[in-house]
Amino acid sequence: MRILVTGGAGYIGSHAMRALTAAGHEAWTYDNLSYGHPKAVKEDRLVIGDLLDKDRLDGTFVQNQIEAVLHFAAFAFVGESVTNPGIYYRNNVAGSLSLFEVMRRHDVRKIVFSSTCATYGIPDQIPITEQTPQRPINPYGHTKLMIEQALRDYSRAYGWGCVALRYFNASGAAADGSIGEDHTPETHLIPLLIAAALGRRGPVKIFGTDYPTPDGTCVRDYIHVDDLASAHLKALETLTPNSFTAINLGIGKGFSVREVIRAVEQVGGRPVPVEFSDRREGDPPALIADSRLAREKLGWEPEKTRLEDIVASAWNWHRQHPDGFRTSRQ
Ligand code: UDP
């Protein structure tokens, strides 16, 4: 298939680009590079443009005869979404509607959308199924839920085939260490712990030790970015007209912050400086996916389910690229 990957120069999008190409699809990245990295994708597969630029999108659809879309492009900093919701509604919601309008213009009816477990907010029960009520607790989650709702309506009205993949905690890096996670600012646990272990930053603040979890720290379902990418491929292949399906993407197993610290120490063979501090606002105690639907509907299985393996791939990337893509050897 000929596929447009919005946000394909970002962390998850760039791994999906690789997976698509390896599977024999023709894929182009559409990215405004506000957070994406040009070095994360092949130059001749990168179109620099904004979702709100309909003319640029139009031209991209025509020129490359696009048949389906993987829609990753979004702002995704929860804290920033609270202090500056305007840019989240504009970029994520208005940007998606602009993309959908161009898709309609070109009669493209297939889309896989990057949603998030943040749409569940603080769930009543664990593990989280796709039927768990969606009650986001921050603007980032609200914008993702709105886009899901739009797609549900578009599937009914315009016959689109839509899958919304609700990611849990994306982590790790490509096996060959050539692409990986590079956020500015970095807020995610694993890259921060690795940077601290490598002596590139001071102690990492651990947000809360009094949660109602086995060791008092938050529990998350860490899923390897290549397993996320492979799920997109499967989703694309199973898209059927007139349907909207939401699917959780996690491995179905939770690890506490303390367990993640131990895994980083084990992989790196050195201690990680940490500082225990207060809870971060808005952090649910535990988020673990019920991942049965992904296995049933997509025939997907995560390959990396050992935390040490996920951390080892991230370690490899960060060790080789101390300044992320600025020190990329590509
Ligand atoms: N966390 C932490 N210190 C940090 C960053 C994260 O203790 O500097 C914790 C956070 O409270 C959460 C877990 O690590 O329980 C994963 O956080 P991350 O930001 O990586 O992903 P999130 O679950 O918020 O999407």
Give your account of this protein's structure.
By secondary structure, the protein is an alpha/beta fold. It has helices at 11-22, 54-64, 78-83, 85-105, 139-158, 189-197, 225-238, 257-268, 292-298, 307-320, and strands at 2-6, 26-31, 46-48, 68-71, 110-116, 161-167, 169-171, 204-207, 219-220, 222-224, 243-249, 255-256, 274-277, 286-287. The chain has two domains: 2-171 and 223-249, Rossmann fold, CATH 3.40.50.720; 189-220 and 252-327, UDP-galactose 4-epimerase, domain 1 (Alpha-Beta Complex), CATH 3.90.25. The strands form four sheets. The protein has a seven-stranded parallel sheet, sandwiched between helices. It has a three-stranded mixed sheet with strand order 12-9-14. The chain has a two-stranded parallel sheet with strand order 7-10. β1, α1 (11-22) and β2 (26-31) form a beta-alpha-beta unit. The longest helix has 21 residues, at 85-105. The chain is globular, with a radius of gyration of 19 Å. Residues 169, 187-189, 192, 204-207, 218, 220, 257, 280, 283 line the site of uridine-5'-diphosphate (UDP). Uridine-5'-diphosphate is lined by residues 169, 187-189, 192, 204-207, 218, 220, 257, 280, 283.
